[in-house]
Design brief:
The chain is mostly helical. The protein has 17 helices and no strands.
Amino acid sequence: MSVHVPRIRTSSPLALVVKEHRDKFALTQEQLAADLNVDVRTLRRWESGETVLNDMRELRRIAMLLGVAPERLGIANAAYSALTIEHIDETMQYIWNLIDLARGYEAVALVERLVNDLGTQLTCEDPAILRKLAETLHLAGYVKSMVTRANEASAPLHYYREMEKVARILQDDTLLNIALTYEGDMHSRNGALDKAITYLEAARDTTPNADSAARGNGIQLLGRAYLRAQRLSDFEQAMQQAEELSYLVNPQSSSTRGQYSLGTVYEEYGRSYIHLGQTQQALDYLDLAEAHLSRTMHWRILIMTARAMALVHDGDFKSGVNLAVESAQLCRDHGTIRLMERIYGVQHYLEQLTREIGQVGAVLRDTLDGPIEY
């Protein structure tokens, strides 16, 4: 008499990696299938082990998009070649998409892997690969700046410095402008305003052939630095130039990858007018910004944090604090830690206001508690 022994389905390397990635970042099968540009039924068969993928090219693509070593998917070192321009472009676009979705924790793990792989591969000064390295360093700096506090700007600053070196080798004004701009912005985050303005002005003045997107982005951030330095006339002039240049830019194809547009200029105006005490004007500009920015989670959180600041400064404490609490939770969930600085600013403003009210109230209380003269 024969006994039927059920076949035990063993997990493939791909099944393990896919399940691990979904668990780590709390993704549904539908979300990850969309990320990998495959049908959800295909992903389910991979994860269950029902289908074993043997296409080395496809496995390499999945490894890049998940930020894992190809060896983890069973690809031996000898079985895969150096990164191609196509691979690099696809991975960078995937990471920029993660930024739009405010999935910062995934983006930072993936971009660090990409920078490392490119650095390992770079054995000659191939202009095409050097350009991709510069673009990847731009992306890495941006991602790192989003997932770190202001006092942790050294990590993104490193990437922008490396980008500057590559841009100078390529003699590319657009890449150099972007590198100098964000080096200046990182110094501004650290409170080194004089140094920040030096870099931002260098980006403006020494890269005459940079494209409109890079120049506009740099001038917008220069305007921010001028405001912090209380150089109000310079701030107004810079922001006017940034707004004019934004009309020349297509955010979907610009060198700043959509991080500079008319919508970002309006948002910058909005936050600036908060600090200038003109909260109604700030709220009006934030409305304009929201209307012009794409409706992604990244921009949603950006506008929410700015609006929370404006409402609190306008005296609508209940609405402002409620929005600040919601924004802070979204920042934590999505890894947009840089935007948490705005919520800390709201807290500090409220604490300062409380102290001032307490001091004034104490004077009145002492008067009322004093002796009554007849």
